[in-house]
Amino acid sequence: MENKIDYFNRAQKAQEMKRLIEQSDLFDSQVGGMLDVFSPSERDQIQSIVDLGCGPAGTLRKAAREYPDKQFLGVDNAPDMLDFARAETMTSKITNVEFLAADLRKLPFPLRTQSFDLVYARLVFGFLQRNFYPYFVEEMVRILRPGGWVLWWDCDFSPFTSSPSLAKLYSLGKLAFFRSGVGHQIDALHITSPLLGIFQGAGLEEVRQRIQIIDCSYGTSFTEACFRDNKDLFSQLKGYCQKMGVVNEAPHKELEVTEEEYDYLVSRLDEEMHRQDFVVRFVFIATIGRKPAI
Protein backbone atom coordinates (compact mmCIF):
# COMPACT_ATOMS: atom_id res chain seq x y z
CA MET A 1 0.00 0.00 0.00
CA GLU A 2 1.24 3.49 -0.82
CA ASN A 3 0.34 6.70 0.99
CA LYS A 4 0.16 9.65 -1.43
CA ILE A 5 0.81 12.75 0.67
CA ASP A 6 3.95 14.68 -0.24
CA TYR A 7 5.80 16.60 2.44
CA PHE A 8 4.36 20.09 2.26
CA ASN A 9 7.53 22.16 2.12
CA ARG A 10 10.06 19.94 0.39
CA ALA A 11 11.02 22.85 -1.88
CA GLN A 12 12.54 24.97 0.92
CA LYS A 13 15.12 22.34 1.85
CA ALA A 14 17.76 24.43 3.61
CA GLN A 15 15.26 26.51 5.57
CA GLU A 16 13.28 23.46 6.62
CA MET A 17 16.40 21.59 7.73
CA LYS A 18 17.43 24.51 9.94
CA ARG A 19 13.93 24.64 11.42
CA LEU A 20 13.87 20.91 12.14
CA ILE A 21 17.27 21.03 13.85
CA GLU A 22 16.16 23.84 16.17
CA GLN A 23 12.80 22.15 16.76
CA SER A 24 14.56 18.90 17.66
CA ASP A 25 16.79 20.66 20.19
CA LEU A 26 13.75 22.33 21.78
CA PHE A 27 11.82 19.08 21.92
CA ASP A 28 14.72 17.11 23.38
CA SER A 29 15.32 19.72 26.08
CA GLN A 30 11.75 19.34 27.30
CA VAL A 31 10.85 15.72 26.59
CA GLY A 32 14.22 14.07 27.06
CA GLY A 33 16.17 11.63 24.96
CA MET A 34 14.95 8.86 22.72
CA LEU A 35 15.05 6.22 25.48
CA ASP A 36 14.09 8.35 28.48
CA VAL A 37 10.48 7.09 28.66
CA PHE A 38 11.78 3.62 29.51
CA SER A 39 12.98 2.29 32.85
CA PRO A 40 16.69 1.45 33.28
CA SER A 41 15.97 -2.27 32.97
CA GLU A 42 13.94 -1.71 29.81
CA ARG A 43 16.69 0.46 28.32
CA ASP A 44 19.22 -2.29 28.98
CA GLN A 45 17.15 -4.70 26.87
CA ILE A 46 16.93 -2.26 23.94
CA GLN A 47 20.02 -2.78 21.79
CA SER A 48 18.87 -2.04 18.22
CA ILE A 49 16.85 1.11 17.42
CA VAL A 50 15.36 2.47 14.20
CA ASP A 51 14.13 6.06 13.85
CA LEU A 52 11.44 6.30 11.15
CA GLY A 53 11.43 9.74 9.51
CA CYS A 54 14.64 10.79 11.25
CA GLY A 55 15.19 14.01 9.27
CA PRO A 56 18.58 15.56 10.16
CA ALA A 57 18.74 13.00 13.00
CA GLY A 58 19.65 15.28 15.88
CA THR A 59 17.81 13.16 18.44
CA LEU A 60 19.17 9.95 16.96
CA ARG A 61 22.77 11.16 17.07
CA LYS A 62 22.39 12.31 20.69
CA ALA A 63 21.09 8.88 21.67
CA ALA A 64 23.94 7.18 19.82
CA ARG A 65 26.50 9.27 21.71
CA GLU A 66 24.79 8.51 25.02
CA TYR A 67 24.57 4.77 24.32
CA PRO A 68 27.68 3.77 22.34
CA ASP A 69 26.97 0.07 22.97
CA LYS A 70 23.64 0.22 21.09
CA GLN A 71 23.05 0.25 17.32
CA PHE A 72 20.96 2.93 15.60
CA LEU A 73 19.44 3.27 12.13
CA GLY A 74 17.86 6.45 10.77
CA VAL A 75 15.41 6.23 7.86
CA ASP A 76 14.19 9.19 5.82
CA ASN A 77 13.04 10.04 2.30
CA ALA A 78 14.99 13.33 1.99
CA PRO A 79 18.52 12.89 0.58
CA ASP A 80 19.60 16.34 1.80
CA MET A 81 18.55 15.49 5.37
CA LEU A 82 20.46 12.21 5.26
CA ASP A 83 23.55 13.84 3.73
CA PHE A 84 23.58 16.33 6.60
CA ALA A 85 23.01 13.57 9.17
CA ARG A 86 25.84 11.44 7.76
CA ALA A 87 28.24 14.39 7.68
CA GLU A 88 27.45 15.33 11.29
CA THR A 89 27.82 11.71 12.35
CA MET A 90 31.27 11.48 10.75
CA THR A 91 32.37 14.84 12.17
CA SER A 92 31.30 13.75 15.65
CA LYS A 93 33.04 10.38 15.17
CA ILE A 94 29.87 8.46 16.01
CA THR A 95 30.34 4.88 14.84
CA ASN A 96 27.12 3.15 15.93
CA VAL A 97 24.70 4.89 13.51
CA GLU A 98 23.71 4.04 9.95
CA PHE A 99 21.23 5.71 7.61
CA LEU A 100 18.85 4.42 4.96
CA ALA A 101 17.04 6.40 2.26
CA ALA A 102 13.49 5.07 1.95
CA ASP A 103 9.94 6.32 1.42
CA LEU A 104 8.03 5.02 4.43
CA ARG A 105 4.73 5.76 2.68
CA LYS A 106 5.39 2.74 0.48
CA LEU A 107 4.75 -0.58 2.16
CA PRO A 108 6.30 -2.85 3.13
CA PHE A 109 9.21 -1.01 4.75
CA PRO A 110 12.57 -2.04 3.23
CA LEU A 111 13.56 -3.49 6.60
CA ARG A 112 13.82 -7.08 7.74
CA THR A 113 11.18 -8.69 9.95
CA GLN A 114 12.06 -8.75 13.67
CA SER A 115 15.17 -6.57 13.29
CA PHE A 116 14.82 -4.00 16.09
CA ASP A 117 14.20 -3.71 19.83
CA LEU A 118 12.75 -0.20 19.48
CA VAL A 119 10.87 1.33 16.55
CA TYR A 120 10.74 5.10 17.09
CA ALA A 121 8.84 7.82 15.25
CA ARG A 122 8.29 11.49 16.07
CA LEU A 123 6.11 14.15 14.45
CA VAL A 124 5.48 12.14 11.30
CA PHE A 125 1.79 13.07 10.95
CA GLY A 126 2.50 15.50 8.10
CA PHE A 127 3.11 12.76 5.55
CA LEU A 128 0.62 10.09 6.71
CA GLN A 129 -2.98 9.94 5.55
CA ARG A 130 -5.56 9.12 8.21
CA ASN A 131 -6.40 5.70 6.74
CA PHE A 132 -2.69 4.80 6.58
CA TYR A 133 -2.05 4.69 10.34
CA PRO A 134 -3.05 1.02 10.92
CA TYR A 135 -0.82 -0.16 8.07
CA PHE A 136 2.06 2.00 9.33
CA VAL A 137 1.77 0.53 12.83
CA GLU A 138 1.50 -3.01 11.46
CA GLU A 139 4.82 -2.47 9.68
CA MET A 140 6.34 -1.09 12.87
CA VAL A 141 5.30 -4.28 14.63
CA ARG A 142 6.57 -6.50 11.80
CA ILE A 143 10.13 -5.17 12.03
CA LEU A 144 10.07 -5.34 15.82
CA ARG A 145 11.60 -8.25 17.70
CA PRO A 146 9.44 -10.10 20.24
CA GLY A 147 9.53 -8.16 23.50
CA GLY A 148 10.50 -4.95 21.69
CA TRP A 149 8.85 -1.54 21.87
CA VAL A 150 7.09 0.92 19.56
CA LEU A 151 7.34 4.58 20.61
CA TRP A 152 5.49 7.23 18.57
CA TRP A 153 5.56 10.88 19.64
CA ASP A 154 3.13 13.22 17.89
CA CYS A 155 0.79 16.17 18.34
CA ASP A 156 -2.61 17.33 17.14
CA PHE A 157 -1.33 20.67 15.73
CA SER A 158 -3.49 22.55 18.28
CA PRO A 159 -1.49 24.69 20.73
CA PHE A 160 -3.09 26.77 23.47
CA THR A 161 -2.15 30.38 22.73
CA SER A 162 -3.08 33.98 23.47
CA SER A 163 -1.85 35.09 20.02
CA PRO A 164 -4.81 35.57 17.64
CA SER A 165 -2.57 35.39 14.58
CA LEU A 166 -0.80 32.23 15.71
CA ALA A 167 -4.12 30.59 16.55
CA LYS A 168 -5.54 31.50 13.13
CA LEU A 169 -2.46 30.19 11.32
CA TYR A 170 -2.76 26.86 13.11
CA SER A 171 -6.43 26.72 12.15
CA LEU A 172 -5.52 27.30 8.50
CA GLY A 173 -2.78 24.70 8.71
CA LYS A 174 -5.15 22.14 10.24
CA LEU A 175 -7.66 22.74 7.45
CA ALA A 176 -4.96 22.29 4.81
CA PHE A 177 -3.75 19.08 6.41
CA PHE A 178 -7.29 17.76 6.75
CA ARG A 179 -8.07 18.45 3.09
CA SER A 180 -4.96 16.50 2.10
CA GLY A 181 -6.09 13.49 4.12
CA VAL A 182 -4.25 14.11 7.40
CA GLY A 183 -6.11 13.89 10.70
CA HIS A 184 -9.65 12.99 11.67
CA GLN A 185 -11.32 16.36 12.38
CA ILE A 186 -10.79 19.92 11.20
CA ASP A 187 -10.86 21.68 14.58
CA ALA A 188 -8.27 19.33 16.10
CA LEU A 189 -6.63 16.78 13.86
CA HIS A 190 -6.84 14.02 16.50
CA ILE A 191 -3.63 12.39 15.34
CA THR A 192 -2.87 10.77 18.68
CA SER A 193 -6.27 9.75 20.06
CA PRO A 194 -6.80 6.76 17.68
CA LEU A 195 -3.31 5.38 18.30
CA LEU A 196 -4.18 3.51 21.50
CA GLY A 197 -6.74 1.42 19.64
CA ILE A 198 -4.49 1.01 16.60
CA PHE A 199 -1.60 -0.19 18.78
CA GLN A 200 -3.87 -2.67 20.55
CA GLY A 201 -5.34 -3.82 17.24
CA ALA A 202 -1.83 -4.52 15.95
CA GLY A 203 -1.25 -6.91 18.83
CA LEU A 204 0.87 -4.69 21.06
CA GLU A 205 0.68 -5.04 24.83
CA GLU A 206 1.33 -2.69 27.76
CA VAL A 207 -0.09 0.08 25.56
CA ARG A 208 -0.12 3.49 27.20
CA GLN A 209 0.24 7.18 26.46
CA ARG A 210 2.39 9.84 28.06
CA ILE A 211 1.47 13.52 27.81
CA GLN A 212 4.12 16.24 27.73
CA ILE A 213 3.28 19.96 27.75
CA ILE A 214 5.94 22.31 26.40
CA ASP A 215 5.48 25.89 27.60
CA CYS A 216 7.00 28.49 25.29
CA SER A 217 5.20 31.50 26.77
CA TYR A 218 6.86 34.87 27.30
CA GLY A 219 9.55 34.68 29.97
CA THR A 220 10.44 31.05 29.37
CA SER A 221 13.79 30.10 27.89
CA PHE A 222 12.05 28.74 24.79
CA THR A 223 10.14 31.81 23.57
CA GLU A 224 12.67 32.80 20.91
CA ALA A 225 13.13 29.27 19.59
CA CYS A 226 9.36 28.88 19.42
CA PHE A 227 9.00 32.18 17.56
CA ARG A 228 11.61 31.21 14.97
CA ASP A 229 10.10 27.76 14.55
CA ASN A 230 6.60 29.06 13.93
CA LYS A 231 7.67 32.00 11.77
CA ASP A 232 9.61 29.63 9.51
CA LEU A 233 6.90 26.97 9.59
CA PHE A 234 4.09 29.22 8.47
CA SER A 235 6.22 31.13 5.98
CA GLN A 236 6.85 27.80 4.27
CA LEU A 237 3.34 26.45 4.79
CA LYS A 238 1.72 29.13 2.61
CA GLY A 239 2.35 27.27 -0.63
CA TYR A 240 0.83 24.13 0.82
CA CYS A 241 -2.21 26.10 2.01
CA GLN A 242 -2.58 27.55 -1.49
CA LYS A 243 -2.39 24.07 -2.99
CA MET A 244 -5.13 22.88 -0.62
CA GLY A 245 -7.32 25.92 -1.38
CA VAL A 246 -7.08 27.34 2.13
CA VAL A 247 -5.39 30.47 0.74
CA ASN A 248 -7.20 31.71 -2.37
CA GLU A 249 -8.59 34.77 -4.12
CA ALA A 250 -12.20 34.22 -3.02
CA PRO A 251 -11.95 32.65 0.43
CA HIS A 252 -14.73 31.29 2.60
CA LYS A 253 -15.26 34.03 5.18
CA GLU A 254 -14.71 31.88 8.27
CA LEU A 255 -12.41 29.12 7.04
CA GLU A 256 -10.07 30.54 4.39
CA VAL A 257 -8.01 33.69 3.70
CA THR A 258 -6.48 35.59 0.83
CA GLU A 259 -2.73 35.58 0.27
CA GLU A 260 -2.53 39.13 1.62
CA GLU A 261 -4.41 38.12 4.77
CA TYR A 262 -2.14 35.12 5.27
CA ASP A 263 1.01 37.24 4.91
CA TYR A 264 -0.41 39.74 7.41
CA LEU A 265 -0.99 36.99 9.97
CA VAL A 266 2.62 35.83 9.63
CA SER A 267 3.86 39.41 9.95
CA ARG A 268 1.93 39.81 13.22
CA LEU A 269 3.73 36.94 14.94
CA ASP A 270 6.75 39.03 15.88
CA GLU A 271 4.75 41.53 17.91
CA GLU A 272 2.21 39.12 19.39
CA MET A 273 4.75 36.47 20.41
CA HIS A 274 6.98 39.03 22.15
CA ARG A 275 4.26 40.58 24.30
CA GLN A 276 4.74 40.16 28.03
CA ASP A 277 1.33 38.48 28.29
CA PHE A 278 2.02 36.04 25.45
CA VAL A 279 1.07 32.44 26.21
CA VAL A 280 1.59 29.33 24.11
CA ARG A 281 1.65 25.72 25.25
CA PHE A 282 2.07 22.69 23.02
CA VAL A 283 0.78 19.23 23.92
CA PHE A 284 2.80 16.25 22.72
CA ILE A 285 1.71 12.67 23.31
CA ALA A 286 3.84 9.54 23.26
CA THR A 287 2.05 6.30 22.43
CA ILE A 288 3.98 3.28 23.66
CA GLY A 289 3.40 -0.44 23.15
CA ARG A 290 5.31 -3.69 23.50
CA LYS A 291 5.34 -6.68 21.17
CA PRO A 292 4.54 -9.90 23.03
CA ALA A 293 7.57 -12.01 23.82
CA ILE A 294 7.64 -15.50 22.38
UniProtKB/TrEMBL annotation:
Source domain of life: Bacteria
Record InterPro entries: Methyltransf_25 (IPR041698), SAM-dependent_MTases_sf (IPR029063)
Segments forming domain Methyltransferase: 49-148
Signal peptide extent: none
Gene3D superfamilies per the UniProt record, alphabetical: Vaccinia Virus protein VP39
An example Gene Ontology molecular-function term: methyltransferase activity
Name of this chain's protein: Methyltransferase domain-containing protein
